Amino acid sequence: MTLDDLPTPALILDLARLERNLARMRERAAALGVQLRPHLKTAKSAQVARAAHRGAAGPVTVSTLAEAAYFAAAGFTDILYAVGIVPAKLEQAAAIMRQGRNVGSGVDLKLITDDVQAAQAIAERGRALGVSFRVLIKIDTGLGRAGIAPDADSLLPLAAALSQPGATLAGVLTHAGHSYHARSTAEIAAIAEAERAGVVQAAERLRQAGHDCAIVSVGSTPTALFAAALPGVTEIRPGNYVFFDLFQAGLGTCGLEDIAVSVLASVTGRHRGRNHLLIDAGGLALSKDVGANEHRPHTGYGLVCLPGGALPLPGLAVTDVHQEHGLVAPATPEQAGTALPFERFPVGSRLRVLPNHSCMTAAMYDRYYVVSGQPGAGGEVIAEWDRINGW
Amino acid sequence: MTLDDLPTPALILDLARLERNLARMRERAAALGVQLRPHLKTAKSAQVARAAHRGAAGPVTVSTLAEAAYFAAAGFTDILYAVGIVPAKLEQAAAIMRQGRNVGSGVDLKLITDDVQAAQAIAERGRALGVSFRVLIKIDTGLGRAGIAPDADSLLPLAAALSQPGATLAGVLTHAGHSYHARSTAEIAAIAEAERAGVVQAAERLRQAGHDCAIVSVGSTPTALFAAALPGVTEIRPGNYVFFDLFQAGLGTCGLEDIAVSVLASVTGRHRGRNHLLIDAGGLALSKDVGANEHRPHTGYGLVCLPGGALPLPGLAVTDVHQEHGLVAPATPEQAGTALPFERFPVGSRLRVLPNHSCMTAAMYDRYYVVSGQPGAGGEVIAEWDRINGW
Hints:
Distance between the termini of chain A: 32 Å
Number of helices of chain A: 11
Radius of gyration of chain A: 22 Å
Largest interface: A-B, 60 and 60 residues
Low-confidence stretches of chain A: none
Strand content of chain A: 15-25%
Oligomer: homodimer
Order of helices and strands of chain A: EHEHEHEHEHEHEHEHEHEEHEEEEHEE
Number of strands of chain A: 17
Largest sheet of chain A: 9 strands, mixed
Structural class of chain A: alpha/beta
Mean pLDDT of chain A: 96
């Protein structure tokens, strides 16, 4: 099967780019002396997770309990669910831990919280369910989303609530997601140092109070790539790096030639008078994430390549989307007068769209069509890899 | 099972609101003297489609061939695929037509195009596949997306290409999607009249040239609701009306009390210092569609209700989303200083989020949890209805 045989829209994964991205982050983790625990919220794929660990079912981070159950079933035993746990989900969490026991030594599923009342509920439910939930305390190091400050009064009450039958304090965790809005790699490096310093400060406070704090976890693709050093940190949790996207290219963490996923689309119309093509990749097939325009104006809803992939066609973008329609048009007002090469793109011809935000775009598909990405390999589809969507 | 038992995030469908919305559009179609062919791109559900037709498997519009195959399998035989067909999809289209033959008299699957070269390819493929594809010509009446102008030179060549063995001209079709950006219902009515006049003009040109033009199809929820009269039109194709959403409420086509779908979410964190709650409905669970803010500023990514539903809590919105995190905070800068009622919303408590754009939000779920919506009925889940996502 080749790209020409695929139904459109379809999600294409370039294996050569993926492998290069994975190796780059493995080398970073090794150089920084930390464990790599990739965040699989981007790929949601056991095959990608294994590739990230050179074939091993290594440590992973997940964003839903559906992902946790999927990776447990695929043989992964060291799983961190990195969204604040709610008590009603603890029974499912305990089932995933037991699910692992059926296949071997059990799943070490770790949870997170930043709320003392929730921590008490976790321990209570743990006792009722006959398990001890391993829980990390979420620390805020500048993103301002979830987590307590490194010097917050509630740190020790949280640790105490997690140090009773039914719960175990497993460590501390932070996510410097504000690195996505940095203006330079130097600024990313500064955010990475603040991320490190904050979470290490929290770990030291816990240890001084007599708590064990085995895991000190930081993570985002930009800070993992540009941190100068990570003393005191035990692991990094980058996610987007497996595929990258136009946002990351604009931020400067990757090049356009590193973007490993794209959407194969068919031309469904061409309109000379309006100087646009229509493709069958719209708001559902691409997502409506326009964040990439922050760093890279005129990216629209994605950039357009020939079906063979490689690099974007200059001056074109998906400038608007409706549910099942994408409009391909000149990317900037200055280019609006330049007629599109309509003769090259009859109805039924194909394009590839590089995504603004690969986490959001990939989530619309139930599988990857994998191409080798090797020069000269053509469009042969060498594998189909699954994904775990939903909740 | 009640709402309290559901996993979160979950998609909730209020049956009383749905039935009221469906009845309203049936009454409109009857008053206008036209067939109702609801666009199921919003609901993607056989149960909703049957409810729209009082239990019958009536005419439907679809946005993907996956939907067409799903509705054919569910017993619907009059299906219009309203996205420009590409030749590579014709074999699948023919299979859907045959699929119907297995269960009875066959599926009358209608296609659309606006491209002479594609029309020729349709007829050629029809001959090769041993079928005659019924095709409508797409007319542009002001949206400027797909379609030819009513007075375009290519209308008669298109009709000729579709009047040979392998293809049949089934009619003309338009979609005045620009009605979504109208500033008043009077403006919507004016757009509806232009939509009608344009597509009827094209139909008359075809008839004067000796072609049959049985179907004259218009459609959007706003124009269907506010058209004064539709002489010459045979059918309307509204879609969003089944559920409505915050965009439509801002446009003035529905009230907040008509929005039939919402996302049930759990509080995953509460942060007094930052004056926000976190919920487990983020960019994937709600979509990143912010179009509703055009008509209704400070809608953010959705408005927040108590878990029992009804109307939004004043002054609150989902002000930001990450992949699996929604931030619930004061909706406007003026309200930013008002502390949230944190005591009412411990971790694990639940909220319902009214969606900005129900087509996009619903697409993230594989099922509806249906509640009766009757006063006093409580949160009992009375049914689960499926959806057909993907392509």
